[in-house]
Amino acid sequence: MQKLTVIGLGPGAGLDLTLRAREAIESSDLIVGYTAYIALIRDAFPHKEMVSTGMKKEVDRCRLAVEAAVSGKTTAVVCSGDSGIYGMAGLIYEVAQDYPPIDIEVVPGITAACGGAAVLGAPLTHDFAVISLSDLLTPWEKIERRLRAAAEADFVICLYNPRSRSRADMLRRACDILLAAKGGDTPCGYVKNIGREGQTSVVLSLSQLRDCEDVDMFTTVFIGNEQTKLLNGKLVTPRGYLQREE
Ligand code: SAH
Questions:
Q1: Please, what is the average pLDDT of the chain?
Q2: What are φ and ψ of residue 188, in 5° steps?
Q3: Which residues face 220 on adjacent strands?
Q4: If we measure between CA atoms, which residue out of 203, 26, 8, 210 comes closest to residue 112?
Q5: Is the CB of 155 under 6 A from ligand 1?
Q6: CB 81 within 8 A of CB 107
Q7: 20 to 30 A from 166, CA-CA: which of 18, 115, 134, 139?
Q8: Ligand 1 centre and the CA of 50: distance in Å?
């Protein structure tokens, strides 16, 4: 059957690109992806046919890929991080409904939450919630509800799409919601350009995060829970092993 693979490249498509993802790229005739992600892998696979499409062209990109697969080309769609976490995997399954059946394989990747957590220390060692602050596809009221619920339940919280030029105040609004349930000194951190050139990380308090202008769309933000602490500058959420022995 005709084959379409949805591949997560990891945060930077460098050392965090899995062997399985690499092999899936190698065995595809055509690679389709957002311009910035194709750029990440272009040099590593110089002989592959690749097609890139712009931002907000997700449906077109998926149709193009499904049509290529239906026509007999082994095709791959690449996404940054994981292919199913705010990635193209779901949309590929949806779009494929309109076409003759093809074999779809999802190849997972290291999501920004895992990549960023490893840079900051070990903030995700206990229950955590991942929330995107993008209201392009989700009403802001629903995002607020999820933020409130995650803060109330004392999850460590990981924010994707934390801030853009057109939505500059969203991180501040999110922090205000979290501050209703959490202390201003809650340890937080963010990592920019995880696994890519220019990777930087910052540890700061929730109050400082609220007024932080440095966070952008290439940043993943981490907000600690009641147990999260700083150990030698690293953000750590204990699972509780040592505390059990006390
Ligand atoms: N599928 C991706 C997420 C896409 S949503 C994944 O699993 O990682 C896009 C958001 O992910 C960005 O706004 C940012 O918050 C986060 N992100 C993705 N790659 C990143 C990177 N290399 N460095 C920092 N944040 C990243």
A1: 95
A2: -135, 170
A3: 191
A4: 8
A5: no
A6: no
A7: 115
A8: 22
Please answer whether residues 201 and 191 qualify as being in contact, where contact means their C-beta atoms are separated by less than 8 angstroms. Answer: yes
Specify the pTM: 0.96
- Work out the widest C-alpha separation in the chain, in whole angstroms: 64
DSSP assignment string, 67-92: HHHHTT--EEEEESB-SSSSSSHHHH
134 lines ligand 1 (CB under 6 A): no
- How many angstroms is it from 13 CA to the middle of ligand 1? 12
pLDDT of residue 244: 82
C-beta of 10 in contact with ligand 1 (< 6 A):
no
- CA 86 to centroid of ligand 1, rounded, Å: 8
Residue linked to tokens 């007024």? 211
Cβ atoms of 236 and 228 within 8 Å: the answer is: yes
